[in-house]
Amino acid sequence: MPETCGQDPIPYAREEVQVLHTLLPESISKQILDSPIKSDVVWALKIADIVHFTCHGNFILDDPSHSHLLLRDWETDLFTVADIREMKLDGRQLAYLSACHGASNRREKLLDEGIHLAGAFQFGWVPTCHWNPLAS
């Protein structure tokens, strides 16, 4: 999201995406959502193994579960920590957040909790790798 209504432009957002596009091998399917709404991102998260967000993010001090990424429709339909956690996206590999406040949580009573955007992806994205520490 190089441009977001009501926010400062993100310089180099397009360049960041282009660099990723050139670094990833052709065997990896890529789809760029230049200015997505929440439903676009929800759909993409259900089929993608790897996602990269280049957008604004915001944290909500009084309720960190309502911290959110600012998508095109952020003024009417926020994409929140709670939304991400509820998706239960088993089998995904990586979510990279190039967004402000991706891991912010300044609520004193919750400082040891992962209630932020990065934590929501860690909670919701359970890798498919089944490792047994007891196996030799």
Count of the domains: 1
Please report the total strand number as a whole number: 4
Query: If you average the pLDDT, what whole number results?
Result: 76
Strand order of the largest sheet: 3-2-1-4
Largest sheet report: 4 strands, mixed
Tell me the fraction of residues in β-strands, as a range. 5-15%
In short:
The protein is α+β, with helices and mostly antiparallel strands and 136 residues long. Helix content is 26%, strand content 15%.
Protein topology:
Blueprint: H1 13-23, H2 38-47, E1 50-58, E2 68-70, E3 79-80, H3 81-87, E4 94-99, H4 117-124
Helix pairs in contact: 3-4
What does this protein structure show overall?
There is one protein chain. A four-stranded mixed beta sheet has the order 3-2-1-4, sandwiched between helices. Helix content is 26%, strand content 15%. It has four helices and four strands, in the order H-H-E-E-E-H-E-H. Residues 126-133 have low confidence and may be disordered. With 136 residues, it is of the alpha+beta class. The chain has one domain. The protein is globular, with a radius of gyration of 16 Å. It starts with 12 loop residues before the first helix and ends in a 12-residue tail after the last helix.
